[in-house]
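Consider the tokenized backbone below.
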């Protein structure tokens, strides 16, 4: 059950529960979080998993705001750029998981402050009741074709790590920053709506069959396979591929349980389940391919070359420019 932090703090202060607590901040959504609350508690019945489901930027802001009095234990999920920034701001506790050597150096922090869990390509999402793959744009620039004016709806960007990455990537791939902003201005002119959260985006696209969007490929798979939404995707060439991460929050009130939860959700068994049930593509290289869905083992992605450390340095400024010169422009 979703539990707000102030309830957890009150219960602890009053001694209302004899169970131990671990608090998880995550943008992975209620499907994943409810599932892994139940799975972890089944193996650790003495533990009460409490979680906050929020967008990546909101989680990052919460961790920063609580730095002098941390309330969360585990930060599970967000693009690596946010973990890079958080690590530099000393918001994360170094922890070397048991599987540390099974992840490429580019998918983890050199000081063990965060590790990548999944690789998540950005895709163009569409409603299969209206379109086939052949009818949907297969490059980023085709999104600007007049035929798609008023037919693109996306998650409101600034609180979404996914959409902040999209903004940054469209600027980074352009010949100059100004030309990237100009591209985003044209894209903005194509939009039908900006949605406040992912669930509203899914519901809107389910009802409005002629709309398309930009979103994480694994989440498209999740909504199709688990929730029965009529969605599919196209992976453009040179697509940004996010590394989603996990970390222990510095000063975590329940550090030992934080480590136990961290190891539990990143175990081979859990990652295989997340791949099958939620479309997550693991970063670990030591998993038995037979335990993963065939579509993951045969996935063909052309990743956009991105210096993620440099990207992280520029992301806030790029998003500020987008807000001022695109979203709020007269």
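A designed sequence for it:
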């Amino acid at each position: 059950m979703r539990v707000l932090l102030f309830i957890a703090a009150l219960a602890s202060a009053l001694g209302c529960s004899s169970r131990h607590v671990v608090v998880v901040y995550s943008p992975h959504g209620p499907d994943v979080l409810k599932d892994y609350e139940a799975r972890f508690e089944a193996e650790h019945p003495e533990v009460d998993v409490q979680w906050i489901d929020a967008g990546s930027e909101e989680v990052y802001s919460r961790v920063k705001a609580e730095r002098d009095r941390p309330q969360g234990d585990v930060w599970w999920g967000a693009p690596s750029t946010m973990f890079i920034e958080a690590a530099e701001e000393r918001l994360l506790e170094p922890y070397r998981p048991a599987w540390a050597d099974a992840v490429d150096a580019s998918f983890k922090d050199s000081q063990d402050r965060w590790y990548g869990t999944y690789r998540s390509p950005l895709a163009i999402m569409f409603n299969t009741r209206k379109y086939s793959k052949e009818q949907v744009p297969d490059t980023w620039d085709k999104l600007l074709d007049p035929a798609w004016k008023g037919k693109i709806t996306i998650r409101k960007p600034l609180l979404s790590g996914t959409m902040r990455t999209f903004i940054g990537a469209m600027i980074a791939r352009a010949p100059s920053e100004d030309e990237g902003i100009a591209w985003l201005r044209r894209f903005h002119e194509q939009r039908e709506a900006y949605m406040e959260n992912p669930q509203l985006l899914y519901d809107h696209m389910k009802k409005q069959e002629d709309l398309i969007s930009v979103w994480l490929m694994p989440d498209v798979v999740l909504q199709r396979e688990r929730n029965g939404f009529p969605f599919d995707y196209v992976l453009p060439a040179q697509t940004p591929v996010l590394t989603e991460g996990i970390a222990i929050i510095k000063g975590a009130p329940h550090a030992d349980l934080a480590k136990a939860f961290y190891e539990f959700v990143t175990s081979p068994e859990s990652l295989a389940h997340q791949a099958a049930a939620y479309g997550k593509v693991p970063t670990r290289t030591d998993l038995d391919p037979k335990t993963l869905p065939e579509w993951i083992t045969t996935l063909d992605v052309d990743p956009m070359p991105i210096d993620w450390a440099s990207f992280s340095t520029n992301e806030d400024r790029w998003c500020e420019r987008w807000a001022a010169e695109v979203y709020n422009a007269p």
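The first helix runs from residue 5 to 14.
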